[in-house]
Amino acid sequence: MSKQFLLDGQPVPFEDGQSILEAARKAGHYIPSLCWHKDFPAHGSCKLCIVKAAGRHVSACATPAKEGWEVESNTPEMNGERRALLQMLFVEGNHFCPSCEKSGSCELQALGYEYEMLTSRFRHFYPDRPVDASHPDVLLDFNRCIFCELCVRASRDVDGKSVFALTGRGINKHLVVNAESGRLADTDFSKDDLAAHICPVGVILHKGPGFAVPIGERTYDAASIRSQKLKEEES
Amino acid sequence: MSFELETAVNREGLRRVAIDPVSRVEGHGKVTLLLDEAGHVKEARLHIVEFRGFEKFIQGRPYWEVPVMVQRLCGICPVSHHLAAAKALDPVVGALTLTPTAEKIRRLMHYGQILQSHALHFFHLSSPDLLFGFESPVQQRNIVGVAAAHPEVARQGVLLRKFGQEVIRITAGKRVHGTGAVPGGVNKSLTAAERDELLADADQMIAWSRDAVHLARRLHESDRALYDEFGLFRSHLFSLVRADGAMDLYDGHLRLRDARGHIVRDGIPCADYEQHIVEEVKSWSYMKFPFMKDLGPARGWYKVGPLARVQNCDFIPSALAEIERQAFIAHGEGEPVHAPLAYHWARMIEMLHAAEVIRSLLDDPDLLSNQRMNEGTKGREGVGIIEAPRGTLIHHYRVDDDDLVSYCNLIVSTTHNNQAMNEAVRQVARRYLDGRQLTEGLLNHIEVAIRAFDPCLSCATHALGKMPLVVELLTADGSLADRVAHGG
Predict the structure, then answer these.
(1) Which among A92, B18, B237, B425 counts the fewest CB atoms within 10 Å?
(2) What class has domain B51-460?
(3) What ipTM does the predicted assembly reach?
(4) What is the pTM for the complete model shown?
(5) A91-206 maps to CATH 3.30.70.20
C-alpha cells in the first residue's frame, strides 16, 4: 500500500521524495506553476503552486509530500492568492498581450484566464526594458520576463553556456545576458539551445515566425492550461 | 495657411458654441463655432481631441509585430491597418509578390471589412438622419428608432454587418483584431466548410446591398435640393485605382482628379507617395492637414473615400455595382458629384461591389490552398497603401539591421478628409446656422455633414512628437508659474 495525502479531500498517492505538485499532477490533479519544469529541480520562485499543507502556506513544487497531510489547493482562498500573484507578475513587467506573438500560447496569459484575472489591481511599474534584437535568430523582449529562471537554468545546466542570469535585487531585479556588451549576439547562444525553447512567456522569441500560428490553433485556444498540463503529464 | 471661417479676425467677445462630442462617428471630436452678437458665424472648426502615439511607440519593436499592433488604432476598421501594415512589410521579408492564395485571402478579408464598415455607417450611424430628417426628435434619431419604424431595413443592416464580420473572422481568426495577414502572406487559408458557410449567405448579401444602394439613391433623388446642395464644396478627388483604371480597394496606383473631373495626376506608385503628399500642422487640432505638394495647401487639398473612389475610377469591375456607378455618374450630368450627402449613395455602391467581390472570390479554389507564404531577399523599407472604408490609408516603415522598426509614418484615411470636413462644416454653418437661434436640430446639421464622411477620429490622430503642444502650470491665483512649449 503506497503512501498518500489528501488534496482537497481526494487521496493522492506518492513515493518518497516526490513533491506535492509532482504527486498531484501524476494523479491527475492540477496545481498551477510557471517556474516549475519536470526536468529541473524545484525553483519555488513564482509561488503559483502555493497550497496550504498542514495549515501552512508552502510551494507545492518544493515541498515533499507527507503521509496523511491534508492539502488545500483548489479553494477560493488559494485561488485568490494565485490571482493576486498573477496580478503582481503582470504589473511588474510590460505585458501587452494584444500585440504579443506569444498570445494564445503564453502560460502567464493562460493562467490569467484560468484564475479569472479581470483587472490588473495593482499600479503598473512600467519598467524601461529595451529589447535585444542583436542576435540574428532570436529576439529578447525583456518586458515580459517573470524571473522564472528557466532560461538561466537550461543554459547553465543543459546547454553548458550560462548565457542568462538575473541581476539586481528586489524591485530592480532583471534578466541580463552574460556578455560584456550585454548583447545576445556577443554570446555563443544558439537557436537550437534548450534555453531558446523553454521560456513560458514571450521573452525568448525566434525571429521570423511571428504570428504564423493562426488564432484557433495556438496552444491554449482549444483547451485550458489546466487540461493541457494534465495531458502532458499523461504522455 | 488659413481658410475662410477657419479663424475669426477678432476672437474677443465672440460667443462660443461647442458640439462636444460629435455623436454617431468613430472616435472623439468636437466642433466649435464662434458667433457674434447677431448670431453670425465667424469661425467654425472641427477639432480632433484624441491623442495617440502609434508612430512613435512602434519604433523599436520587431517588424512582424507591426500588423497586429497597429490595427489597435481602430476597433471599426482594424483590418485596413492590419493589411496596410502587412503590405508595407511584404518587401521587408522579400515577398515582392504574394502567392495567389495569400493575395485572395487578404482581398477577401478586406472586402469583408468594407462591407461591414459601410453597413455599420449607413444603417447604424447615418440612416436615422436620412430616414427621419435632420431635425427629427432626438429620441428617435438612432438605430433603435430605425428598428422600430423600419424593422426590415434595420434587420438587413445588422445582418450585412454581421456577414462582413464573419468574413473577417474566417480569414483573420477573430471578428476584431485578428492575426491573418503576416509579412509575406497569410497564416491561414479557408477550409471547405468555412467557404461553404460564407457561400450560404453571399447571394443574399448582394441582394440586400443592392436594395441599400436603391434606398440611398431614392433618398437622394427624393430631395435633390437638399442632397445636392447640403454642405457643398468642390475639391480634388484622390484614391487608388487599378492599373487599368478599375476600382480596386486593395491595391493599385494613386490617382488625383481635379474638381471638374480631369485626371491631373495618375499612375503614382505607392512607394512614391512622399514625393507628392505633405501634411500641414495646425495648432488647434491633433489631426494634420495633407495636401498635394506641388499644388500647395490652398489648392492642393482633396477628398478621399467612397465619393472620391466611385468617381475616380474608370469603371467598377463587378456587374451590378458598375450599373449603379453609371447611374451615379449620370446624376452629375457631366460634372463630378461633390455633394457630401452623396457619400452615402457612393458608399452603398461600394458595399454592393464588396458583396460581389466576396461572392466571386468564394468560387476560387486558391482560397483553400496551403501555398500561403512567399519570401526572398530581405528589404529594409516598405510602403503599403490600401483603400480603407473611409479612404486612402498609407503605412510606411523602415526596419533596421536587427529587424526592429526604425521609422513609421501613417497617413490615415480620415486625415486626408480633414480640410474637406472642415469645409463642409463651414458651408453648413454659413447656410443653416448663420444669424439663427441655435437648436439641437440645427446643430445636428453640422454633425450630419461630418457623418457623411464617416470619419474615424481615433485613427486619424497619431502625430506624437510633431504636434505643437503648450503646457502651462498656473498657481492657485491663476498666475503663470511655468510654461513648456513643444514646437510643431
Answers:
(1) B18
(2) mainly alpha
(3) 0.94
(4) 0.93
(5) yes
